[in-house]
Specification:
Elements lengths: L1 H22 L5 E7 L2 E7 L4 E15 L6 E20 L2 E19 L11 E19 L4 E18 L6 E17 L2
Antiparallel strand pairs: 1-2, 1-8, 2-3, 3-4, 4-5, 5-6, 6-7, 7-8
């Protein structure tokens, strides 16, 4: 778990430290914000190819009012996408984009307070590896702002293991449609 946190901290530090250097070349690097919730950068390696690394983070917690049982979870992930631009129509450019996605999740379930649970909290961690192929369109609203939208197909492999019971592990696969919208600001 500590290794994953260090990798994401190093990735975030690299993105932040490189932005001022890239910003000197106007129009080559933009700050991206997207839904589903993600943030990152878009670097235009050439006029026809862009690279878009992004990160995600989420957390949740629940607690019952009667027994003080509950749960907490957090997830951190990254996606690396390469955009291959196809054609330009006035202010709209189309592209196709393969991407790689990785996320790490940690979950803790707290038993009711006062219970005689011999094991205490139930903890598990999970890793998800996958990819996607999307078709997108990018609308240039102003010289500093672009609006993006994309649809496609995604797949992933999930492996989850219990930190409480070392013999419990779950592996699975998921696939289906994916979509997203976002903004890219070019300083």
């Amino acid at each position: 778990m500590m290794r994953t946190e260090r990798v994401f901290a190093a990735l975030l530090a690299l993105i932040i430290s490189e932005c001022p250097t890239f910003a000197q070349d106007a129009g080559k690097v933009g700050v991206a914000m997207a839904y589903p919730a993600a943030f990152g950068i878009v670097w235009h390696a050439t006029d026809a190819i862009a690279i878009r690394p992004s990160v995600t983070y989420s957390g949740s917690s629940t607690e019952t009012s009667t027994t003080a049982a509950g749960s907490s979870a957090w997830s951190v992930g990254t996606t690396i996408a390469v955009l291959f631009y196809l054609k330009k129509y006035d202010s709209v450019r189309t592209y196709v984009s393969p991407s790689y996605r990785y996320s790490h999740t940690s979950t803790t379930i707290h038993p009711p307070s006062g219970s005689a649970s011999p094991i205490g909290d139930l903890k598990s961690t999970g890793n998800t590896n996958g990819g996607a192929g999307t078709f997108g369109a990018e609308f240039t609203a102003t010289t500093h702002l672009r609006i993006i939208g994309e649809v496609g197909f995604a797949f992933s492999h999930v492996s989850q293991k219990s930190a409480t019971f070392s013999t419990v592990a779950v592996n699975g696969k998921a696939w289906g449609a994916t979509a997203g919208v976002g903004l890219v600001f070019y300083p």
